[in-house]
Design brief:
Helix content: 40-55%
Number of helices: 9
CATH superfamily of one domain: P-loop containing nucleotide triphosphate hydrolases
Number of strands: 12
CATH topology of one domain: Rossmann fold
Strand content: 25-35%
CATH architecture of one domain: 3-Layer(aba) Sandwich
Distance between the termini: 20 Å
């Protein structure tokens, strides 16, 4: 599905294999600067696979197709080069990184991105000041900055920590994979507030979610439904509401019947 606007992200006929199994058959989509797209799909439809393939995870093999971010071809790049090009992809289940302090991890990532942009590195004092302010905004205790990445963090704290990284790294495009999972009401509000602010600054978002309340608060520009490794339906918030009412299986059957009768 393609937008009529100038696109920041351009994905064309992307096919992704995991081992011998093809998970994404052919995905085509455009995401303009500052746009918010919600991606929905039943379990196993390929939502997380799309994110991992765009991020350059070595277990996800792009067998065909193209993905451009700001005109840069992502597919030949290593994962860290894709991040430097302006891509941010969150984990559905953020892992621990034992022995690596949160503040050192984030500052190192920020300075790698700044270097790629031709900017001077951020010193420790300026970084810490900004990180503490961002952590407070997200409801994350400042003490978390000096702890190893995600070690001993609850599910909600892990997700807030990814939001902290997102806030400080300021990517061109962010794909958030079920960022609301494990979040309380305050956490969901923090997601919505951060996304709204960053969209105003030009960041585009692809958000994977089945949580209708959050989707409505986000006010997406478009909602896409992924099924069988392809984007099979595009709509507005009413598409998300319809899926929430009936479930994926019944919605898909009704959509197929409508297409046959058209």
């Amino acid at each position: 599905m393609m937008s009529t606007h100038s696109a920041l992200l351009q994905v064309r006929d992307l096919r992704v294999d995991i081992g011998e199994r093809t998970v994404l058959q052919s995905v085509t989509m455009d995401v303009p600067e500052g746009e918010l797209v919600v991606l929905m799909g039943a379990n196993g439809s390929g939502k997380s696979t799309l994110g991992m393939a765009l991020a350059g995870h070595p277990s996800y093999h792009v067998a065909a197709g193209q993905a451009l971010l700001g005109g840069t071809d992502l597919i030949p790049l290593a994962a860290h080069e894709r991040a430097r090009a302006g891509l941010f992809v969150s984990f559905q289940a953020p892992p621990d990184v034992p022995g690596v302090k949160n503040n050192l991890f984030i500052r190192t990532a920020i300075n790698a991105i700044r270097q790629a942009r031709g900017e001077d590195p951020q010193d420790a004092f300026d970084f810490l000041s900004g990180a503490k302010a961002a952590a407070k905004e997200l409801g994350l205790p400042a003490t978390m900055l000096s702890r190893p990445v995600n070690e001993g963090f609850s599910g909600g704290e892990r997700k807030r920590n990814e939001l902290l990284q997102l806030s400080l790294m300021k990517p061109k495009l962010a794909m958030l994979d079920e960022i609301d999972s494990g979040m309380d009401v305050d956490g969901v509000r923090a997601v919505v507030k951060l996304v709204e602010r960053m969209r105003g600054e030009g960041t585009a978002f692809i958000i994977v979610s089945h949580y209708l309340q959050m989707i409505e608060l986000l006010q997406p520009d478009r909602v896409l439904r992924l099924d069988g490794g392809k984007i099979v339906e595009e709509g507005d918030i009413e598409l998300a509401r319809g899926i929430a009412r009936t479930g994926f299986k019944q919605h898909a059957a009704a959509a197929e019947a409508a297409a046959v009768g058209a």
